[in-house]
UniProtKB/TrEMBL annotation:
<dbReference type="GO" id="GO:0018773">
    <property type="term" value="F:acetylpyruvate hydrolase activity"/>
</dbReference>
<dbReference type="InterPro" id="IPR011234">
    <property type="entry name" value="Fumarylacetoacetase-like_C"/>
</dbReference>
<keyword id="KW-0479">Metal-binding</keyword>
<dbReference type="Pfam" id="PF01557">
    <property type="entry name" value="FAA_hydrolase"/>
</dbReference>
<dbReference type="GO" id="GO:0016853">
    <property type="term" value="F:isomerase activity"/>
</dbReference>
<keyword id="KW-0413">Isomerase</keyword>
<protein>
    <submittedName>
        <fullName>2-hydroxyhepta-2,4-diene-1,7-dioate isomerase</fullName>
    </submittedName>
</protein>
<feature type="domain" description="Fumarylacetoacetase-like C-terminal">
    <location>
        <begin position="64"/>
        <end position="258"/>
    </location>
</feature>
<dbReference type="Pfam" id="PF10370">
    <property type="entry name" value="Rv2993c-like_N"/>
</dbReference>
<feature type="domain" description="Rv2993c-like N-terminal">
    <location>
        <begin position="1"/>
        <end position="59"/>
    </location>
</feature>
<dbReference type="GO" id="GO:0019752">
    <property type="term" value="P:carboxylic acid metabolic process"/>
</dbReference>
<dbReference type="InterPro" id="IPR018833">
    <property type="entry name" value="Rv2993c-like_N"/>
</dbReference>
<dbReference type="InterPro" id="IPR036663">
    <property type="entry name" value="Fumarylacetoacetase_C_sf"/>
</dbReference>
<dbReference type="GO" id="GO:0046872">
    <property type="term" value="F:metal ion binding"/>
</dbReference>
Length: 262
């Protein structure tokens, strides 16, 4: 099931996305409004609205976004870094989260902002110290993410809070796919239609299961929390006016335009 969060006529709701996003598919996508929230038992209301009539929002409003650095060997190498002995984790604040179609606002304190296409894991239930064999039980689904990074600030400052946590630095969307095997998916990033990144989740140094185990050893994960699993090689600069798109096999495309801070 694909679950979207959206607004219509000033109201916010979740809905199940119906229809095909495959090229050449006929018919418009519609949303069957969900009774309740997707983190508990819910029913489809049968009330349907065209996707074109709503505004897509970030599919979740996470309490925290836990991101993982250097989880693809080629990406670590392109930035001149060694693979870490243990996963490098950091936080992106909830205020950095935006949805598909929302702008990425170029921060005034940086002159070198980069895209980083990533698979995002959405947690479905409160959990801690999750054993590897139970990881699937705590995951609601997966979505696309862009770990937007002020690269010059990241290199200049020891902590990455400003470099990766500024407002609009965590686009998520367009929706959550609940029925997906994350082991070997294509991840692609384009800027103005030109391909920048192309990789597969099978190239991750540590799998989704390994990351959930590692992170949940230290902290309680809450429904709606998000884990970013790292980016493949090919990261590069974004400029004001660019349109950046992250496409992940089996999920869809997350699209954002870069604007100047007003």
């Amino acid at each position: 099931m694909r679950i979207a969060r959206f607004s219509i006529d000033g109201n916010v709701a979740f809905g199940a996305v119906e229809g095909s996003t495959a090229p050449g598919a006929e018919g418009e996508l519609v949303l069957d409004i969900i009774k309740g929230i997707p983190f508990a038992d819910f029913e489809l209301s049968g009330t349907k609205v065209p996707l074109s009539k709503v505004r897509l929002l970030p599919p979740v409003l996470p309490n925290k976004v836990v991101a993982v650095g250097r989880n693809y060997a080629e990406h670590a190498a392109e930035l001149g870094n060694e693979l870490p002995e243990a996963p490098i984790t950091f936080f992106k604040p909830s205020t950095s989260v935006v949805g598909s179609g929302d702008p990425i606002v170029y921060p005034s304190f940086s002159q070198d902002v980069h895209h980083e296409a990533e698979l995002a894991v959405v947690i479905g239930r409160m959990c801690r110290e999750v054993p590897k064999e139970r990881v699937k039980d705590v995951i609601l689904g997966y979505t696309c993410a862009n770990d937007v990074t002020a690269r010059d600030v990241q290199q200049r400052e020891k902590q990455w809070a400003r470099a990766k946590g500024f407002d609009s630095a965590c686009p998520l969307g367009p929706w959550i796919e609940t029925d997906l095997d994350p082991a070997d998916l294509t991840i692609q990033c384009t800027v103005n239609g030109e391909q920048r990144q192309l990789g597969r989740t099978s190239d991750m140094v540590r799998s989704v299961e390994d990351l959930v185990v590692h992170i949940s050893e230290a902290m309680t994960l809450l429904p709606g929390d998000v884990i970013l699993t790292g980016t493949p090689a090919g990261v590069g600069p974004l400029n004001v006016g660019d349109e950046v798109a992250v496409t992940i096999e089996g999920i869809g495309t997350l699209t954002n335009k870069v604007i100047k801070r007003g």
